């Protein structure tokens, strides 16, 4: 299987590419320097020349807070870029995997969100990612939309590393009224591989179980064997430019492992 990956130099892409190669795929890695997804002509030319069996579209604008002040750039990458990829895949009959987010939901549902629940994003990032989903649905017949959440990995800035870098502070306050599903990039990559044997459609590919950001931090420090002064706080005490859904827990259909087990493997690997 020939697989083209966009955003291959990103946090997810750097784990996904070797995992797909280990599974027997021939992987073509692209990033903004080799494939500008906002350039429709270039996208069409590259995909026409390479003719991959599958495109995994990891490239995205992911700065949630900055998207509130720079919607134009977020739209260009997350909407226009995805439209270009989806249109080329649709016309060439290529299967597309689009990475989406729990932030397509408003967080008002008390039970875990299922893939067919109605999205209602409450920030610009979530809006642009949902518009990307709609582009995929309208332009492709063969697609998988993989919604993930609270992503962390060894190859990028993430919550786990941020917490560990703060361990020597006199006090660390972390939000305890937002609940979600922490997801390791390796779990997401393996989950995407599993999707390829399932019917086309929308799936939730995130860690099993759920916690708050405070609960996540507590588990990080516990697994690291660190004794820190960790205190819970409210969203109001830690204001951010973009609104966050209070409860973005997703039902993953057992595609990925328990989030604590995945975190344990992440922590063990980072110590090598």
How do the strands and helices of this protein lay out in sequence?
Layout: E1 2-6, H1 11-22, E2 26-29, H2 40-50, E3 54-57, H3 71-92, E4 95-101, H4 124-139, E5 143-148, E6 151-152, H5 159-165, E7 172-175, E8 179-180, E9 183-184, H6 185-195, E10 201-204, E11 211-212, H7 213-224, E12 230-233, H8 259-270
Parallel strand pairs: 1-2, 1-3, 3-4, 4-5, 5-10, 6-9, 7-12
Antiparallel strand pairs: 8-11
Helix pairs in contact: 1-6, 2-3, 3-4, 5-7, 7-8
Short account of what is shown:
This protein has 272 residues and is α/β, with parallel strands linked by helices.
| Tally of individual helices | 8
Q: In which range does the helix fraction lie? A: 25-40%
Radius of gyration: 18 Å
Topology pattern, helix = H, strand = E:
EHEHEHEHEEHEEEHEEHEH
Distance between the termini: 32 Å
> How would you characterize the largest beta sheet?
6 strands, parallel
CATH class designation: Alpha Beta
Low-confidence runs: none
Q: What proportion of the residues form beta strands (DSSP E)?
A: 15-25%
State the domain count. 1
Characterize the overall form: globular
Category from helices, strands and their pairing:
alpha/beta
Spatial sequence of strands, sheet with the most strands:
2-1-3-4-5-10
Q: How many runs of DSSP E, i.e. beta strands?
A: 12
Output mean pLDDT: 97
The name of the CATH topology is: Rossmann fold
Supply the CATH architecture.
3-Layer(aba) Sandwich
CATH superfamily: NAD(P)-binding Rossmann-like Domain
């Amino acid at each position: 299987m020939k697989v083209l990956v966009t955003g291959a130099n990103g946090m997810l892409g750097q784990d996904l590419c070797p995992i797909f190669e280990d599974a027997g795929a021939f992987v073509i890695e692209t990033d903004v320097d080799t494939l500008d997804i906002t350039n429709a002509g270039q996208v069409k030319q590259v995909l026409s020349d390479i003719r991959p069996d599958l495109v995994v579209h990891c490239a995205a604008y992911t700065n949630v807070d900055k998207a509130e002040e720079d919607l134009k750039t977020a739209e260009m990458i997350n909407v226009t870029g995805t439209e270009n990829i989806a249109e080329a895949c649709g016309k060439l009959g290529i299967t597309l995997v689009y990475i989406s987010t729990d932030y397509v939901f408003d967080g008002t549902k008390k039970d875990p969100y299922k893939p067919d629940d109605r999205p209602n994003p409450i920030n610009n990032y979530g809006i642009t990612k949902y518009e990307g989903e709609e582009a995929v649905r309208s332009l492709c017949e063969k697609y998988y939309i993989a919604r993930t959440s609270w992503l962390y990995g060894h190859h990028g800035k993430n919550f786990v590393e941020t917490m560990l870098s703060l361990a020597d502070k006199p006090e660390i306050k972390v939000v305890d009224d937002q609940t979600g599903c922490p997801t390791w990039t390796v779990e997401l990559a393996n989950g995407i591989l599993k999707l390829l044997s399932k019917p086309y459609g929308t799936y939730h590919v995130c860690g099993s179980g759920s916690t708050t950001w405070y609960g996540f931090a507590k588990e990080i420090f516990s697994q690291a064997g660190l004794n820190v002064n960790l205190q819970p706080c409210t969203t109001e005490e830690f204001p951010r430019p973009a609104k966050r859904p209070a409860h973005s827990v997703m039902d993953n259909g057992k595609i990925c492992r328990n989030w604590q087990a995945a975190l344990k493997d992440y922590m063990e690997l980072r110590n090598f």
